[in-house]
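Run log, item B.
One chain of 274 residues. Sequence copied directly from the ordering sheet:
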Amino acid sequence: MKPQNLIALLLFIAGAAWALTRSEQTVRSIQKTYYNSISYVVKSGSTFETTASEFVKEVEHSEEWKARYNLAKEELDKKRMEVAHLRKLEEENARLSQALKFQKEAPFDVIAAKIIRRQPSTWWHTVTINRGEKQGIGVQLPVLSPEGLVGKVDAPSEDTSTVILLTDEKCKVSAKVDGTPELGILSGQRGLTGQDPVLKLSFLSKDAKISAGMRVFTTGKGKLFPPDILLGTVTSFESGPLYGEALVKPAVDFAALQTVFVKLLPHSLEEEYR
């Protein structure tokens, strides 16, 4: 046995013998002092054990809630997708209902057509529709939507047709400002790219009483476009040295355009056209 261990053993034996030879009161005092000295350690150990146990339970609880959260999030994502799909169907149904109502209530014969082609480089200028000469589509026929005038047929083929949009500068329309005697020529503007289109209403009186919010309609002059078809709303007016000019926001949302209606010729005129 090592000397250090032997000395420690002898000291322990001596201390025990000394304690046993003391009176009962002294022994109890020694025991009390000993228990007091170790009670903090025992208490601390117990507290630590309780804290550790609670921590483990909290971690297990957190993992359970994390799993529940992930499951709920997956369900929420699915519901959001379902709601988005239902909203899309609802919007499509609303557009279809509006289109059917327009077709039924139009004071002239129209045929519905879907836009099947649209080039980014000519987005505000032309579109291609899925109707052509086989369906009675001819050159210069007006193209409309429930919101207002879209443009005119430019080049029909057997089953498709190219339409010049109102936002193209080559599509010129005789127009009038509602509530005023003002008449002018409405057309698109050159170089429209990647922005909301704005139409230009030219040849107005330079002192015309025109303000933002006034609506603009077709006049029917020239017999190309029917009268009283909504074209848009005035956003500003500027007086020039010879005539006034107004900027007009189109009534039709050309960015979201999907379905249009082509005004067909009356049968008598159709035979003459052929």
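Observations after the first pass:
- Confidence is low (pLDDT under 50) at residues 267-274.
- The chain has two domains: 1-105, 109-273.
Flagged for discussion on Thursday.
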